Amino acid sequence: MFPEKSPALRQLLQDNSTLILQDLNRVLLNTNAFASFPDSGLQYPAGSWSKLVLKVWGVENPKILHQFSSLSRCLAEYPEITSMFISRLEGGSRIMAHSGETNTVIRIHLGLSIPDEDAELCGIRVGDNTYFWKEGESFAFLDALEHEAWNESSGDRYILIVDILRDEFKGSFSNICTRIVLNQVIFGLLHKIGLKSLVKPASTILKYLVTPFWPLFKLGQWIQSKYGLIRL
Description:
Blueprint: H1 7-15, H2 17-30, E1 35-36, E2 43-44, E3 49-56, E4 59-60, H3 62-65, H4 69-77, E5 81-89, E6 93-98, E7 105-113, E8 122-126, E9 129-132, E10 138-142, E11 147-151, E12 157-165, H5 173-192, H6 199-209, H7 214-227
Helix pairs in contact: 5-6
C-alpha cells in the first residue's frame, strides 16, 4: 500500500506472530490492561476501541513490555520504532475516518486474532485501498493518509500496530517525538478548557519553541523506561 514497507521488520513480526499472540492471551487472563482510546468522537459505539501500549512516541511502557519477550527484542533491534501497541476493536463497531499526526512514520499492522467469520466484516480502508486483516500477516501504509476501520463481526479483533520512522527522518527521532507529544498535550488541554480555535496557532508556535525540550524528552524516556511512572 506504500512503496516503503519495511520488509525486514514486517517479516520479523510475522515470524513471531504466534509468540506475540500467546503473550497477549496471558496478559488478557491476568489483567485488564487495555485502555480506551481518548478519541471518543472517532469510535462507535463509545469505548469500543482500546489499546495496550508498549511504546508511544519514543517512551516505552516497561510494565507491559516485559510481558512480550519477542517485542522487546524487536524494539532493541529497531530503535527507530516510535510507537508500538496492540489495538482491540470490539465486534459491531467502527473507527471513523481520520489521519495520523505526521507523515514521518510508516504504520505496520500485524493480524493477531481476527474473528473467523466473513473476511470482509473486519477491515480497513486507507486512501483508495481496502485491506482485510489475516492472522500472522502484515501490511504497511503511510499513517498520514486518511483511514477508517470496521469490525462488523460478533467477536473482538486484535492487531499489533508498529510505527517506524521513514528512512529520511531517522536522524530526527527526538525532534519528531517531542513535537508530537507536546502537540498532543496542548491539543488535549485546549479542548478540555473549550479553546479549540487556538489549537492550530498554538501548534505553529510550538514548532519554534520545541528545540529546548529535546534533552528533557530524552531524560523522560529514560525515567519512564526504568521506572514506568506513567500509565501509557
